[in-house]
Amino acid sequence: MTQAGFYPPTLYNATEAAPQEQLALVKVQVDRCSGKYPSLDDDESYSLKIPTPEQSTKATIKAKSVWGALRGMETLSQLVYTTRAGALVIGSLPVDITDKPAYAHRGLMLDTSRNFFPVADIKRTLDAMSYNKLNVFHWHIVDAQSWPIESKFMPELYQKGAYSPSMTYSHREVKDIIQYARVRGIRVIPEFDMPGHVSVVNHVLPQIMTCVNEQPGWDAFAAEPPSGQFNPLLEDTYKFVKKIIDEYSGLFRDDYFHTGTDEVNTHCWETTQSIQQFLTANKKKAGELVDMFLGRAHKFLTDNKKLPMVWEEAILDFNATLSKEAVVQVWRSAENVQKVVAKGHKVLANSYEYWYLDCGHGTWLGNNPEGNSWCDPFKHWQRVYSYDPIANITSPAEQKLVIGGDVCLWAEQTDTNNLDNVLWPRAAAAAEVLWSGKEANGKPLTVKDALVRIQDQRFRLVARGIKAEPLQPLWCARNPGMCDLPPKAPE
Amino acid sequence: MTQAGFYPPTLYNATEAAPQEQLALVKVQVDRCSGKYPSLDDDESYSLKIPTPEQSTKATIKAKSVWGALRGMETLSQLVYTTRAGALVIGSLPVDITDKPAYAHRGLMLDTSRNFFPVADIKRTLDAMSYNKLNVFHWHIVDAQSWPIESKFMPELYQKGAYSPSMTYSHREVKDIIQYARVRGIRVIPEFDMPGHVSVVNHVLPQIMTCVNEQPGWDAFAAEPPSGQFNPLLEDTYKFVKKIIDEYSGLFRDDYFHTGTDEVNTHCWETTQSIQQFLTANKKKAGELVDMFLGRAHKFLTDNKKLPMVWEEAILDFNATLSKEAVVQVWRSAENVQKVVAKGHKVLANSYEYWYLDCGHGTWLGNNPEGNSWCDPFKHWQRVYSYDPIANITSPAEQKLVIGGDVCLWAEQTDTNNLDNVLWPRAAAAAEVLWSGKEANGKPLTVKDALVRIQDQRFRLVARGIKAEPLQPLWCARNPGMCDLPPKAPE
């Protein structure tokens, strides 16, 4: 399994042990088979016991659910090292682990609209997620730039909206991805971002669109080009939204369905004549239309027995009415997590300042001699690791509302050529925060100690086919502590 | 040749042309076959003429040297686009190009010591260099952490100093790499960095070493761990240096041989008792030993008919005496280029602030909760492109001393898993600066215009097997100008 030269580094200097008694059996005991698909309420706890050879040659994993058993097996795999001589060994026995996740929602968000990723990339990402006990694939499928997913009710959506006929996901492929994720204990939550970020729909239904691809000066109408939002006053808009939600609620199996609602541009609506007239006549502000839009869109979700997930703007900027079960995803600052829990909603905490893995390679906008981007700098693994989803939230009840977060990859500057590098091993640092929280045995988890774990994990990822970036020279990986920053470094 | 979906984007919206007369022949005419290996003095100019179909079906490339002809053929390949229907077309005819490089030395530096790169990675990098008319592979082969290259005179150097038996370059492989580079018009300049950055030699010759792997507090003795420098007072040191230079002067064929001399640590020598006694007895300062060391080392180069190349510290920090032919490589600031040309030396200009492609992914040092690195931030392509090797140098004579530069990759956080992503397409931005300079037809070349070229070039690189990072969403690539930063963007 291990590639040449990719010995797990912390064992590199270990003395080759004499042959030991072998582990003959790993008994996996699951209390009950939970639902067919993993869900937010799953119990993923497990215990793992490996006795000394003198005691027994039988290890035991016990879990409440099959998903917990999967986590236990992953932990077991991380205890096994390949020595230089090729022997498989477990470092120190006996092992007695009782473990459970700090957060129920441990996600990775991938944007497949700005650039396209083949199914093989998504499956490999699901593999890597499972190696890191991540359990939600938040699939930001469509956006302003392209519509890669097949639609049965309106095939032109992807026939005209995908970048090319080969850059699409058929229903069959999506079902395959969901199944692939399921057996790894990973939920797949689709996001159909609306009413903004939908410029691509203009290929098919220009009549329900406003402010499409305004040029030049797109920035007055959208967060990024091409601009374009649904007209929230037209019945045809809701007919379309209902069709979308009906079709993809059937295809995707998770309880949750993400309707986006980030970066809705009120200027776009205010400068659309018919909308402007409506606002004047009814003494309303454009922002109020978001609540109206979401109210109707989320009714379609309820009709499909789905629970809503939205970005933070829905509630923080537009004060939209959301059902109690709604999950609100915070991205604009770590502080906004507090604001959302104060309103009593469940929260996914993933501030761009920590968990936007795309940041830091400069702007993708043209004609910018400085080349800088709003979300610079790069979020190195230490920064990713330093994030605390419940920072500054002291009330246990409010802490409980923070159900987890997504490490996010917006794909403006990522495609199949660099996907693994951008995600890994940094997403593993987020995964550790989501599984272990920020302390162990009452002491804060530190970057110093995390390096050894994440470094080892990076070598495991490479050995398992994930092109994860190296964190250090191999010399440092093999000599833990010898490349530490000295206490009073001159730089 | 083009991958699915990787149409050269600027032609994406072009109307499919009706079948045209075909180009029947490309005549390549070379005045004289220059030396067997490319060299600094080569004339790489060429002309390329492609008539209209009405005029003729014969294109012509004329060059003074075979290397110039190679550059002309590369240009020709860049004029050919694959349409969506699969036809190969040339955008507009007639073509009449007369071209030559702005700089004679257009290099790419790769460090193969901090992390190892298989031969296939190096060959693929040479391929990509040739696609971008880069003509020097500066091979930073060994450093403190590992010694991957075979040595005939002292096999233990790589037997003990390489990371593993498979992470080595045999003489046969090096010859193969040099030949592979030669037929692409690329020189291979080896660097054996000394007298610092040699900790790895301690495995074999501890008797010639000082301050080896000082822990903790390595930072007082070296720029990075493990510390270790040659003892410049011992005859055994010079015997070893002579053997190294003799062996590798024979193996490598270029006129130049790089002896490093960056980041020599005087404290290391000052705290070595025997050296301290010598300095006191002779009323010398430790820095003066660099001049002494280099004087002897470069004598061995002369004996082997090699010309010296060194990093800037040799002359700017230690005022070493260098031969007139020596090339001094500047890395610590753009301004230092001026200081070196003022001393009358040839210069390679590659300030880390612009052309260190490894910067910006945070520190690789452990135990740094902040995670920042001295060479942050990331050098995005716009930054790379903005570098002017002759900035603020007004005298034509001094400008002429700037013979080019190397876009550099130090490999602390790069290995085979992310090599292509880190190098490309940013190295293509440096390559354009080195080939075209900073202006065309008396007007400055701009980032706005460069985007279209470098974007197209990135798609060509991907189509030719190089995993180059995307610069933009595919939508932007296909709609040039529509993703430009608006004149007064709010962010």
TrEMBL record, chains A, B:
Q: Which GO terms describe its molecular function?
A: beta-N-acetylhexosaminidase activity
Where in this chain does the record put each Glycoside hydrolase family 20 catalytic domain?
Answer: 103-437
How far does the signal peptide extend, from start to end residue? none
Enumerate the active-site residues. E263 (proton donor)
Instruction: Show the catalytic activity.
Output: Hydrolysis of terminal non-reducing N-acetyl-D-hexosamine residues in N-acetyl-beta-D-hexosaminides
**GO process annotations (BP):** carbohydrate metabolic process; glycosaminoglycan metabolic process
Checking Gene3D superfamilies in the record gives: Chitobiase/beta-hexosaminidase domain 2-like, Glycosidases
Q: Which keywords belong to this entry?
A: Glycoprotein, Glycosidase, Hydrolase, Signal
What InterPro entries does the annotation carry?
A: Beta_hexosaminidase_sua/sub, GH, Glyco_hydro_20_cat, Hex-like_dom2, HEX_eukaryotic_N
Q: What EC number(s) would the UniProt record show?
A: 3.2.1.52
Record-annotated Beta-hexosaminidase eukaryotic type N-terminal domain positions: 18-79
State the GO CC annotations.
Answer: membrane
Q: Which family does this protein fall into?
A: Belongs to the glycosyl hydrolase 20 family.
Name of the featured protein: Beta-hexosaminidase
Organism of origin: Dimargaris cristalligena
Q: What is the lineage of its organism?
A: Eukaryota, Fungi, Fungi incertae sedis, Zoopagomycota, Kickxellomycotina
